[in-house]
Amino acid sequence: MNTIFGIPTPALYGQVLIGLINGSFYAMLSLGLAVIFGLLRVINFAHGAQYMLGAFAAYLLLNWLGINYWVALVLAPLVVGAVAVVIERTMLSRLYGVDHLYGLLLTFGLALIFEGAFRHWFGAAGQPYAAPSQLTGGVNLGFMFLPIYRGWVVVASLVVCIGTWLLIEKTRLGAYLRAATENATLVQAFGVNVPLLLTLTYGLGAALAAFAGVLAAPIYQVSPLMGSNLIIIVFAVVVVGGMGSILGAIVTGYVLGVLEGLTKVFYPEASSIVIFVIMAIVLLVRPAGLFGREE
Amino acid sequence: MSSAPLLEVRGLNAWYGESHVLHGVDLDIREGETVTLLGRNGAGKTTTLRAIMGILRRREGVIRLCGKDLLSLPLHKVAQTGIGYVPEERGIFASLSVSENLILPPTVSDSGMSVEEIYKLFPNLHERRSSQGTKLSGGEQQMLAIARVLRTGAKIILLDEPTEGLAPVIVQRIGDVLMALKERGMTILLVEQNFRFARKVADRFYLMEDGRMVNSFPGHELDARMDELHEVLGV
Is the separation of the CB atoms in A219 and A110 below 8 Å? Predict the structure, then answer.
C-alpha cells in the first residue's frame, strides 16, 4: 500500500476530504458572520442557531409537509432569512446607536432561546435526515472512494461562496455594501437607503447560515445544538481571516478545515485545538487577521 | 431678491449631543448662484452643511429646497431632493475603484453629466478609473469627490473646503471646474478659507462667527471689506 510520511494514502485522502467538508461549513458560516460584522458591526452570536434553524426547517418541511431536499435547499434559507429580517427590524436595529456589546448580547440571547425551544420540542438527540436519492452512493476515484453527497457539499459551498463574493465585489449592490461598511453615514447622505441595506445584509447572512444547515442535515443529523458546537470554531476562523474580510473568511474556512483534517492524521491529539492555536499565533503576529485591514 | 430662493434656511439651530453649535442661522441661495461661507475654524461652516444634509440630526428651524421641507426627511431622502454633497474629508472609499466611487451616488434627476462627459472634464480620473479610490493623489481625490456629485443631476452642490491642503496648480484646476459648473447654471454653496480662490467664484459671501451668521455681502464688495474680514477671521 502507498504511504506518505508513513501514513497510508487512503487514510490521508479520507481526512483531507473530511477537512474539506468541515472547511466548507466553516467557509459558508464565517462568510455570513464576516458580512454581517463588516456592515452592522454586530457579532452575530445567533449565527449557529440560524444554521440549526436551516437544518430543522429542512427536516420539518420533509416530515410535516413532504417537501423534498431540493426545494428545502431554497425554501429553508428564505424562511430563516425572513425570520432574521424581522429580528433586525424589530430588535437589532434599535441597538445600532449604542455599544456593540448590546448587539452581541441580544443575538446570544436569541441563540439560547432558539436552541432551548428546539431542545424542548425535539430533545437533544439528533434526528436523521436522509440524503436525496440522487446523491446517495459513491464513486471510486481510483485513489479513494468519494461519497457523492460529500462531493456535492464541497461543490455547493464553493458555488455559494464564490457567488456571494461576486455579489459583493462586482455588483452595484455590493459596492453600496462595501462603501457603507467604510462610512455608512456618507453613503446614506448620498441617497442610498442604508437602513434597508442593513436589514437585507442581516437577512442574507442568516440565509447563508440556513443554507449551510440544510447541506449539513444529511451529514451531521439535525439537532438543536448542532450550531453551538460549530460556532466557536467559526468565530476563530473569522478572527484568523480578518474581521469583516469576505475573501479572508472564505479562504481561511477551507484552509483551516483541511489543516484540521491533516492534524487528525499526523497528530490526532492536537486536532481539536489546532484552529485555536493558529488563531492565537495570528492574533500575536497579525492582530487584524491574515486578510484584514488595519484600522 | 425677487425670485424665491432655491435653498432657504431660517432660524437653524443645531446640537452636537448637548452642545448647542448653530444659533439661528439664516441663509438664502438663489438658483445659479455661488455662495461662500467664510469664518474661522470652528465658526460652524461645516456644521451648517452637515445640518442641511441631515447628517447632523438634532436640528430646529426651517430648511427648504425648492419650497420642500428637508428637516423632516430621513437622511437618505435628502439627496434625492437634489442636493449633492462633497464632504471636507472627501469621502473616497478605499474598497471601491475610482469608477465605482464615481457611480456610487444614485442619480436624482436626468440633468446630470454622463460618465463620458465627466471623464472628458477629468481625464486623470479616466486614466486611473480601475485604481483603488484612495490610491489617487489628494487633488485627484478631490476631483473625484466633485465629479461624483455631478453625475447625480443634483440642483445644488455643497462643497466643503475643496482646496484644503492642495497645491496651487490643483487649486487653479478646481477653480476652472467650478467656473465651468457656474456657466452650466449649477448652484453652489461653498465653504472656503482660501480668499483668493473664493473671490474668483463667489457671487455672494456669508460671514459666520460662533455658530451665527454675522454678515452677508455681494462678491464685489470683498476687497472693500478686507479690513473688517481680517478682524473677524484673524488672518
Answer: no
Confidence of residue A269 (pLDDT cuts 50, 70, 90): confident
Q: Do A191 and B103 touch (CB under 8 A)?
A: no
- The rounded distance, in Å, linking the Cα atoms of B132 and B115 is 18
From the list A172, A178, A188, which residue is nearest B93 (CB)? A178
pLDDT at residue number A270: 86
Task: Assess A97–B contact: CB distance below 8 Å, yes or no.
Answer: no
Among A270, A240, A243, A292, smallest CA distance to A40 is for: A243
Please give the full DSSP string across B54-116, using - where no structure is assigned.
Answer: TSS--EEEEEEETTEE-TTS-HHHHGGGTEEEE-TT----TTSBHHHHHT-SPP-STTSPPHH
- DSSP-derived letter for residue A192 is -
What stretch of H or E contains B24? strand B19-29
**pLDDT (tens digit per residue) in A182-200:** 999 999 999 999 999 999 9
* Yes or no, beta carbons of A191 and B76 under 8 Å apart: yes
What the block records as the C-alpha cell of B102 is: 464615481
**Mean pLDDT lowest among A37-46, A137-146, B186-195:** A137-146
- pLDDT at residue B1, rounded to an integer: 45
Is there a contact between B96 and A178 if contact means CB atoms under 8 Å apart? yes
Task: Provide the whole-model pTM.
Answer: 0.88
> Which ipTM value was assigned to this complex?
0.91
Sign of the four-CA dihedral B222, B223, B229, B234? positive
* Chain B residues with beta carbon closer than 8 angstroms to that of A176: 104
* A183 in contact with chain B, both atoms CB, cutoff 8 A: yes
Q: Do B76 and A186 lie within an 8 Å CB cutoff?
A: no
Q: How many Å lie between the alpha carbon of B161 and the closest alpha carbon of chain A?
A: 17
Please list the rounded mean pLDDT of every run of 10 residues in chain B (235 residues). Answer: 80 93 94 92 92 94 93 93 94 94 93 91 92 91 94 94 90 91 92 86 92 91 84 74
Q: Name residue, grid cell 447654471.
A: B185
pLDDT at B14: 95
DSSP string across A144-156:
SEEEHHHHHHHHH
Give one DSSP letter per residue of A198-210, joined into a string: HHHHHHHHHHHHH
Tell me which residues of chain A, numbers 192 to 211, contact chain B at a CB-CB cutoff of 8 Å. 192-195
Candidates A190, A245, A294: best to mutate against B (most CBs of B within 10 A) is A190
Residue contact B79–A185, C-beta within 8 A: no
List chain B domain ranges.
7-233
- Its sign, for the CA torsion B94, B96, B100, B104, is negative
CATH topology of domain A13-285: ABC transporter involved in vitamin B12 uptake, BtuC (1.10.3470)
Domain B7-233 superfamily per CATH: P-loop containing nucleotide triphosphate hydrolases (3.40.50.300)
A15, A261 Cβ separation under 8 angstroms: yes
